[in-house]
Design brief:
Length: 157
Amino acid sequence: GGTLFESSVLYGFKAAVSDQEGFVPESCFIMEASTPTYGDVFGTVPVATYVAGYELPAGWKLDAAIRYAYTEGLLRWFDRWSPSVVLRVPMTSRWEVHAEYFDTFTKRNVIDVHRAFFSPGTHYMLTKNLEVGLRVGWGITAAAAPFFSDAGFGWRW
């Protein structure tokens, strides 16, 4: 089903693992799940992500992540890996822009695919704990979608 990842609800939590100290990066673990709302496959898929990064001079941030999902396909379950690197630049105390490279590839699928993307975006803090975000992106490998866009919000407590 090509519609599986285009029409789903995403939810989860994030937990701090380490603070930046010397060469040790700030890091966190994210556990989330995606439940399709339309398409050929209707199973909820849990996803585990580990993120590590550094705060750089002038408030810039450089983060890298690896995401893993054990995913149900039309014929069998398979592995989906998604590494990424993102540079975040503050424009004001509440507004930030970013540039990201991310990749997604499968292992043990009926036909394994590799899709890489470049994606600029932005987010704005409406309050101390509520943000809205927008990003667009372009595929840079043959199997990648030529264009995408996302909008959403995040809340922390």
